[in-house]
Design brief:
single chain, 423 residues, mainly alpha, two-stranded antiparallel sheet, 64% helix
């Protein structure tokens, strides 16, 4: 039986996605496993599918090349600036930054069939369904019996700062958060797109996990912004707008009735420690990281080890985290070597959308791509999708844009199942 090259790459991509999940965490050595799987998948993509890569838009390939070079330059920069750095450990702890290169893998798999990316998103939706269930079970198990069956959350046993409005809070990776946006987009565009029961189920489960389990203000605000953008997109179509408005009012009623909205607004001005890194600490962190970037604009502190160089990475009081302040944290961490590829990515994404303006058969796809950009922007204030725990989402999103870089073929590929088009 002949095994297609893209099938091998697809299997490796699946393993890489699963290994990145917090639910498959076993120990600190997982970074070694994840890095090796990532390198193996990228290697297989380049050498087994090099013909497909050559057919992709040159700007797309160049962007990914620049992204890979930024990682290499930052490795060299880190070793020179911090001579005590262990190079082997450095590679394993910093390899997450080249994860956006997996977008090439996503695009290649999608190009194999007309509805390739639709199948990818559907498979990811099934995957996050299992993750939502596991997350809910872990919360119930810990709150009722003190049981932690997922090693990644073993910190719950000793931590005293994991409780908020709805009890214990458990963090989620980027994929679980992003798929909530994917499902709500489908539901709000039901008249044009076919919606499965799983989309409704995952929207409900995902929203529950975001509000009740994750309890992260940044993502709740991000979802409110993103849904508002979808509403604006549907404003000219009465049927869609009314449905969207009803859902928004329902969501607002839930937020108000549970005091969650007032809790979020109040916490923005809070000086207590109930929300972890409180607002005063965040303000101090912003000042510290901006000053560090101005003194080290080329590469910031690079991928310096947070233990060996804790006073630099986390500030003199060891209370600052780059993940808490989004793109400002990235500035301090990688300086221009990190911000340059991110800036070029935004420019490329916007240009791609503009080129698709007159391709009418993928109108919904283009709208979703706009939503993706707004999602990236709205999460850049805190918990950016470019940080270590969420950067896999960047690969998924970039892969979508990569699929549509060739405008002469763009009307042949779909992200969603259309009601008026049989695929």
């Amino acid at each position: 039986m002949k095994v297609h090259k893209h099938s091998i790459v697809a299997v490796m991509l699946i393993l890489t996605i699963m290994s990145d999940s917090a639910f498959f965490y076993t120990s600190i050595n997982d970074r070694i496993r994840n890095t090796l799987l990532l390198f193996a998948t990228l290697f297989a993509t380049v050498f087994l599918c090099k013909k497909k890569i050559r057919e992709m838009q040159r700007k797309y390939r160049t962007l990914m090349f620049i992204w890979g070079c930024s990682w290499i330059f930052l490795l060299v920069y880190t070793v020179i600036k911090f001579p005590q750095t262990n190079i082997t450990i450095l590679i394993f702890t910093s390899s997450y930054w080249i994860m956006p290169l997996l977008s090439l893998t996503f695009t290649i798999i999608a190009l194999h069939s007309r509805d390739g990316y639709k199948k990818i998103l559907r498979c990811v939706n099934y995957y996050v369904f299992a993750l939502y269930i596991l997350l809910i079970l872990q919360k119930v198990a810990f709150e009722t019996a003190g049981i932690v069956f997922l090693p990644f959350y073993s910190r719950l046993i000793t931590s005293t700062n994991v409780y908020r409005e709805f009890g214990v809070r458990l963090g989620m990776r980027g994929i679980e958060n992003f798929m909530v946006i994917y499902n709500i987009f489908l539901i709000l565009n039901k008249d044009k797109l076919k919606v499965q029961k799983l989309n409704y189920i995952n929207f409900g489960l995902g929203l529950y996990c975001v509000i009740v389990i994750q309890q992260t203000r940044a993502y709740i605000i991000s979802f409110i912004i993103t849904v508002s953008i979808i509403l604006l997109q549907n404003a000219l179509q009465k049927k869609r707008f009314i449905k969207s408005l009803i859902l928004l009012c329902l969501g607002a009623a839930i937020l108000i009735s549970t005091n969650l909205l007032s809790d979020i607004i109040g916490s923005l001005f809070s000086t207590t420690e109930s929300y972890g890194a409180d607002q005063m600490v965040r303000v101090d962190a912003i000042n510290y990281f901006i000053q560090y970037f101005l003194k080290n604009p080329i590469g910031g502190f690079g991928f310096a080890d947070g233990n060996t160089y804790a006073s630099i990475v986390h500030g003199p009081l060891l209370r600052y985290w780059v993940n808490d302040i989004g793109l400002i944290g990235l500035l301090a961490q990688g300086g221009l070597l990190i911000i340059l590829p991110v800036f070029l990515l935004f420019v490329w994404m916007i240009k791609t959308i503009l080129k698709l303006k007159h391709v009418h058969r993928i109108t919904e796809e283009r709208k979703f791509m706009i939503i993706c950009i707004w999602y990236i922007i709205s999460t850049s204030i805190s918990l950016s999708i470019f940080d270590e725990n969420r950067i896999l989402v960047a690969a998924l999103i970039i892969g979508i844009f990569g699929l549509y870089t060739n405008t002469t073929l763009s009307d042949r590929y779909y992200l969603f199942e259309k009601r008026d088009i049989k695929i």
